[in-house]
Write a structure and sequence with these properties.
The protein is mostly helical and 502 residues long. It is built from 25 helices and no strands. Helix 8 packs antiparallel against helix 9 and helix 14 packs antiparallel against helix 15. The longest helix is centred in the middle third of the chain and has 38 residues. It is globular and about 95 Å long.
């Protein structure tokens, strides 16, 4: 490893789960059981404790001479990778079984045991094709073909030729679905919360023959892309009932075929299912799906941070939708233990931080709400989620209003107004918010004047949000209920729970 190895080793160690770290130490000690002190484990522990890589600090610890440090880092990196391969080759999931079969194939080939080699090729091919692990299936077929050529088994070669023709037909069909899905996803991502996007482009994409009939998909994965593309289209159009049907069909397909998706892919499917269930008010179903997701994460050896973030977004959302704000706030402690919230900076992380801020806001815990909302606002590279940035600033303004910090509030009124003004093609709701903020900066800060302005603004929003499209603009925060809580001098949590029960 060259100079870049400094960050590679540091990043690798900090990407390991607790279980992987524990396994590495057991694995490393088993390699050097006769030694009391193992310097590469000491180096591992030293780097694991660092927030940023500091080589001078490691040299001062006296783990190894500076001249030998590069060699030790190289050895440690390779040993960690070796332990990970060992760990993830265990277990009975499909990918581990296929990996081990491939290893067995190569061992038999190297030993010159051709019949045993072909036996493993055949087993691996059948399992890989059943569960649509295309790369391993192709490797097995090519290996089987080479073995048949060596043995001059022309009958087997003819059969393999037919199998490969069908294989590539399915693969080409899958490629077409992937390209189409990419085009639709790209359009929907660009459209986002913007107004005035021409739906003629989307209509043309959705009229593609492959999206007219699920049976055009020649594999379970192709059919899955069909369902998933339509799901996100229906999300965009606000048709949650149709989206629910798509994802239910996808789940049924997996059950009927017995195919085992990669863990993270299946968790992504559960994540989408939970979102649709919440949108349709199927809260008991959603909670059941969340628990299934949580159970999979506990058993998983490969789950990554983003899968945890998806789970926490849905679970906190569930407590917001059902008015169980105390449970949502209690879950935050688990989030802080499992997620490095100072480093997690994905679009999903933004939504998680926003949901946590919302939970605390509903509980009147404004200081904690501000702490979480600032995790979004104080990171300028989060700007690619412009809709979330807007609502984060609006919520920040409301927090400072509740904290009774007039100097900061006055400054934020101007700041939020300018930020929203820069956005193009606003919803009518957003324009109404702009007008409200502008009026707020001009009125007397007496309770009577504020209540009058709150009533006026709430009436405006009630009229505007009769349109489903405009109502969508308030999905990030129940601004109408907050205004009602101010007008009636009641807690927001009480107003929201009352609304849920109706």
């Amino acid at each position: 490893m060259h100079n870049k190895s400094l960050s590679e080793l540091f990043n690798l160690i900090h990407a390991l789960s607790k279980g992987e770290k524990r396994y590495f130490k057991l694995y490393a000690r088993s390699r050097s059981s006769h030694l009391d002190n193992i310097n590469y484990i000491d180096l591992f522990d030293a780097i694991a404790k660092q927030q940023e890589y500091n080589e001078e600090q490691i040299v001062q610890l006296g783990i190894v001479k500076k001249a030998h440090l590069r060699m030790l880092k190289n050895y440690l990196y390779n040993l960690i990778m070796e332990s990970l391969r060992s760990l993830h080759s265990k277990g009975e999931n499909i990918d581990n079984r296929l990996t081990n079969m491939l290893k067995n194939m190569h061992i038999m080939r190297d030993k010159g045991l051709q019949e045993e080699e072909i036996k493993y090729f055949t087993k691996a091919k059948a399992l890989a094709l059943k569960h649509e692990r295309w790369g391993i299936a192709l490797e097995a077929m090519l290996g089987e073909r080479k073995a048949a050529i060596r043995m001059q088994d022309f009958k087997a070669l003819k059969r393999i030729k037919t199998e490969m023709k069908l294989f590539f037909t399915k693969l080409n069909n899958l490629k077409e679905y992937m390209v189409l899905q990419g085009k639709v996803s790209d359009f929907l991502q660009k459209a986002g919360m913007q107004r005035g996007i021409k739906n003629s482009i989307l209509k043309k994409l959705m009229a593609h023959p492959l999206l007219k009939d699920e049976n055009k998909g020649l594999s379970v994965e192709s059919k899955g892309i069909y369902y998933n593309t339509l799901l996100h289209y229906y999300f965009f159009m606000g048709n949650n009932a149709a989206g629910y049907k798509m994802i239910a069909k996808h789940m049924r397909l997996l059950y009927d075929t017995g195919i085992q998706l990669p863990e993270l892919t299946y968790m992504g499917l559960l994540n989408n299912f939970t979102i649709v269930q919440h949108n349709l008010g199927k809260y008991e179903e959603a909670y059941s799906t969340i628990q299934k997701h949580r159970s999979l994460l506990k058993k998983s050896e490969t789950a990554k941070e983003h899968a945890l973030i998806d789970l926490y977004i849905n679970e906190i959302n569930h407590y917001i939708f059902t008015g169980m704000f105390e449970k949502g706030a209690a879950l935050v402690k688990e989030v802080e233990n499992k997620i490095d919230t100072d480093k997690a900076e994905t679009p999903a992380a933004i939504l998680l931080y926003y949901n946590i801020a919302t939970i605390y806001f509903y509980q009147d815990n404004y200081h904690k709400a501000l702490l979480w909302i600032n995790k979004i606002i104080n990171r300028p590279h989060f700007s690619f989620r412009e809709d979330m940035q807007s609502w984060a600033r609006i919520l920040q303004l409301l927090i400072h209003y509740e904290l009774n910090t007039p100097d900061i509030t006055d400054h934020l009124i101007i700041s939020v107004y300018r930020f929203l003004l820069k956005r193009e093609k606003l919803y009518k709701v957003e324009k109404s918010i702009l007008n409200f903020i502008r009026r707020l900066s001009k009125i007397d800060a007496t309770r009577k004047a504020l209540l009058e302005e709150f009533r006026r603004f709430r009436n405006e929003l009630l009229k505007i949000t009769k349109s489903p499209d405009e109502k969508k603009a308030l999905e990030y925060f129940d601004l109408i209920s907050w205004l009602k809580s101010k007008i009636e001098n009641r807690s927001l949590a009480e107003i929201v729970r009352e609304k849920i029960q109706k």
